[in-house]
Amino acid sequence: MAKLHVGRVDDSKFEVDLSSLTRHTIILGATGSGKTVLSKVVVEEAALQGIPTFAIDPKGDIGNLAFKSSSFDFSKWSGKEADALRLDRKEYAASLRKLYGDRLKEFGVSPDAPARFEKIPVRIFTPKSSAGLPVGISPDLAAPKDFSSLLASDVSSAADLLDLTSYSLLRLAGYAESDRSEITFVSAILENAWKAGQSLTVRDLMRRIENPPVSMIGSLHVSDVLSDNDRRKLVTKLNLLVSDPKLRSWSAAEPFNFSEMFKEPSINVLDLRNIQSEQEKHLFVELTLQQLFQWMIKQGSAQTLRYLLYFDEIAGYCPPVREPSSKKLLLLLIKQARAFGLGLMLASQNAVDLDYKVISNANVRFIGRLGAQRDIQRVSVGLELGSHAEKEIGRLQAGEFFCNIFEPRFQGVIKSRWPLTYHRGPLENSEIAELMADFKKDMPAAESVAQAVEVEPEQEEEPAPARQKARAKEEEEPAIPPSPHEAFMALEKRFEPKDLAAFIRLGSNVKEARAVSVEPSEIFHPVFEISASVFEKGYAKQTLDRVEELAAFDGTLVQLPAHKLTSQRLIPADVRKDAGKWKGEIEKRAAALKKELVAKFDVVMEDARKEHLAARTQGPKDKIANIDENISKLLDLLDAENEAQKQQEKLYKQLKKEKAKKSRLISVENKIDTKKHKIQTTKRKVEQLRTDREALVDKLRIIEIEEKEKFHDALAEVKSKSSFEIAGWLVETFYRASIAVNGREHHGDVRWSSWSGRGTWGRCSTCSVPLEDGSACSCGNLLCSNHLAYCKICLEPACNEHRAMCYICSSMFCSRHSVKCEVCGQSACSNHSGVCSICSRKACVNCSQKKGLIKRELVCRICSGR
Fold it and tell me: Lowest CB count within 10 Å: 387, 414, 536, 745, which one?
């Protein structure tokens, strides 16, 4: 199995199975963690293994992959960096050459890797710019391969494809997702054409909108779905796609030709920096991914990794709460790309700003140094890593990553290897233009390039009638529905016919065991994919998903055993039907999976309740805190005024007692009145603030009651669903053979598994029962446990033809240790028989006697009677 050398663990080389990338990869790390370097290393290794990559680059860092040199001579591109560091350009280039050479030796990279990578083409596409290779977007209305079969076997994927194509087209014409009537109408026209294998252009679609080829859409007449006036308006807006200069600017250049890009190992970078508006960036990414999805469906399913999609800084395109236009496509690819051989590698600086479904669905996870503890905790919880992993992530240095691979199982800290290409800041447009100059020479002149919306795609070849009949038979409705992209996985062959003597189960008496003739055959074990989800879109706006794959193997449901992907097989109808016997067990597993998610979703709902409550109560709580602060200040002021009033009253009494002047008394009286008035005013302010505070407390109480009611209403709106299907088949090779055991051939019921070695080796010579284990006589006859007998002397098994019971001691003996008495005709063992010294007859002890002085001579009864 091909492996990618991405770094090291301690002093050992660390490699990732190429097949692991089909279930997607996530790379998380703050700025300076080495995230981009690791991403480039994976892309480099994939290219060296023959896997083409399509990279979406919002920041312009990935184009550095075009800075390649077999001798690490990066002087052509390192000058500006040397100037910024105030170093001599030649000396800096020489230091880079030495650094790259030393580091790659340190990591044990193959010496010929730089030379091989230098031959791999790296293309940089720049929409709305002529710096790199020009690229535009236009709706692809070509009919997918075998769309009718896809519609019959996987309604969900077919519906997604129709909806995405229609919506993307209408988005360009100015419609929104809420315009469902127009989207439904266009989807119906596309479905009608695609069922017939017809590909459309925009003008074809406009003609069909004016004169619909269908009269009914669902249960309604065409005019009830979209009136004549609305259809004319739709045609007018679609006409802008081929007439309006602003809209035509999106399709002025050719769209991506994925067939051309992916026909050889290559790296294709989409640089988004020249698209100014974030909304336009999201739209461009959305339509590009939609074209990629359509193209993949036309290529058919695959069990191995064929292409890699790398999306750098994905957080803004797949946030946890918002739904930008590109997010729907990304989640669709994460769910379905594996079936078509496309692996996704997604990188982000901030885990908190990334939808958790992206993280949880990744099979390979690289977590670098993160900037905040909450990021570490979110990643740990999302990936179920545990406290040990949190500590490891907290200690990571630049270039180190905590690697968690779900299948095959691995968890540990790795050090990313050094890249083969020159790693520095984003490329400038002048550098891109220089790097892409050779590619532009091979492009057709701009005036000869036809508009993408006008291209008539080739019609797909209709399947032969025999193939149609076979497919119709295969697509009979089974008890458990099949996936449209079944994977076939061959179990490892561990018990070959040449090694028969080593694993045959016929006891220790087998002196010889060999295969005389062998005929291999295959047995199919169904692999079930069980999925469950729990979601609430109004209150929590969250979804929990879980997918589990189980194989019906050895009479039970187990995790997939070790296997390798293999080519597609034709599964007999009766085998598919037999898979239905597992439906009850699968339904139980699906229910248990859903129950587990429901339990976890309670925490999600409670967190949402707390967030909603905190958001609504924050304002009133802040006001209450402000009121409490003001009341405290006023009470302090009130205490001071009361104290001042007491002092003035005391002074007044003293002056009156001393019979002070009347003017003095009046002055003190006025001050006392002023204090009293101020005290009353302050008390009224305090009372008013307390009244306001009570109103706010009541408001908080009302908010809590309202939120509680909303929470309980939301709990009633929590929905869950589960599904299961046959996702693939384990292919187990069985051998049917004729074998020779101790010189005797056995056939008919001789068969064994090349994976487990278990099987049957023939039939018992006594009862004819097929044997999974037993013993073999020296003559080659086979014996089951019920008819197995061992010689009392040599302890070897013996068949009926080669054993006898001594009539004297009643014990069983093999033919080598028993005789038939030639006097009485009965069988006796060697301990109770002998040879007559006179006539050499074999005689039992009852038919002979010993003579001579010390009675060593044995004389049979016949000779002794003479």
Answer: 387
Mean pLDDT of 841-864: 82
Burial annotation 693-732 (CB, 10 A radius, 16+ → b, else e):
beebeebbeebeeebeeebeebeeebebebebbbbbbbbb
Beta pairing class for 719-741 and 750-753:
antiparallel
Distance, in Å, from the CA atom of 152 to the CA atom of 481, rounded to the nearest integer, reads 11
Taking the C-alpha atoms of residue 734 and residue 753, their distance in angstroms, rounded to an integer, is 5
Distance separating alpha carbons of residues 193 and 189, to the nearest angstrom: 6
pLDDT recorded at residue 251: 59
The neighbour count for residue 83, using CB atoms within 10 Å, is 12
The separation between CA 807 and the C-alpha centre of its own chain, rounded to angstroms, equals 72
| Nearest in space to 475 (alpha carbons), one of 144, 149, 147 | 149
Q: What is the pLDDT of residues 854-864, one digit of tens each?
A: 667 888 888 87
Q: Tally Cβ neighbours within 10 Å of residue 572.
A: 12
d(C-alpha 478, C-alpha 433), whole Å: 56
* Res. 737 pLDDT band, cuts 50 70 90: very high
CA 769 to chain centre: 47
Structure tokens at 819: 């005789």
Q: What is the pLDDT of residue 464?
A: 47
pTM, two decimals, is 0.50
What pLDDT is stored for residue 180 in this prediction?
Answer: 85
CB 303 within 8 A of CB 566: yes
Best CA proximity match to 100, nearest among 423, 418, 400:
418
How far apart (Å, rounded) are the C-alpha atoms in residues 40 and 114? 14
Give which of 438, 418, 431 is closest to 77, Cα–Cα.
Answer: 431
Q: What is the pLDDT of residue 475?
A: 46
Of the two residues 244 and 370, the one the predictor is more confident about is 370
Structure tokens belonging to residue 308: 């890699």
| Consecutive H or E run containing 516 | strand 513-536
Residues 6 or more apart in contact with residue 503 via CB below 8 angstroms = 495, 752, 757
Residue keyed to tokens 């006001």? 623
Strand pairing partners for 131?
none
Q: What is the dihedral of CA 702, 706, 711, 717, to 10 degrees?
A: 170
Burial of 757: CB neighbours in 10 Å, binned 0-12, 13-18, 19+: middle
Q: Which two tokens stand for residue 286?
A: 């959305």
For residues 212, 218, 224, 228, the Cα torsion angle rounded to the nearest 10 degrees is -20
Range 850-859 contact pairs with CB under 8 angstroms and sequence separation of 24 or more:
858/834
Place of tokens 């729907």: 328
CA distance 181 to 226: 6
